[in-house]
Structures are given as C-alpha cells and as structure tokens.
Amino acid sequence: MKKILVAAALLIGGLTVGGTTSSAAYDSSGDLNVNINFLGDYLQFSDSTGDATFQLQEDVHNTLTSTTGLEVNHSYAWVNINGAKVLAVDPPKPYFNRGR
Fold it and tell me: Against a cut of 0.85, is the pTM above it?
C-alpha cells in the first residue's frame, strides 16, 4: 500500500511539475450565481475562499488538459453570501445543463 501511495504521489507531482501550459475552456457566460443574504449586519465574508476554490478547480482542469490533451468546456456555480464569492463549484456537465 505504501508503494502505491508513493507511486501516486510521484505521478501527480511529476504531472504538476512537468505538465505543459494549457488551459481548459472556461466559459464564464454559463456561470450560475446563488446569492444568499444572511445576517449582513453581523457577518462579513471575503472573496478569498471563492477565489481559492476557483483556482484549485482551474488547476485541476489545466492538469487534465495538459496530460490528456482533452479540453472540457466548463462553467461554475458561484455561492455568494452577503455579496462575497465564498465558493466556486464546477458541477459535472450532466447536472448543470442550462439549455446547452
């Protein structure tokens, strides 16, 4: 089991370091925004978690694109609380079909 974990870690590390620069097709026009107003006078949020989850998923898309050569069109569902983007979710395409 330890050998498998080490091999998987090396593979992921190698793909991250050795991967070429490419990008998956992010289409912001298909984004869905869910806005929640919750105790706005008492709770303040920042965009940092939304930006972090977005960047994490974009890095996954870029890694998959650079290793497989396949580009996947994708959009995000953004969760906004009191006007701040707190979460970016890239749902699987079959679950997020907005007439396309």
Answer: no
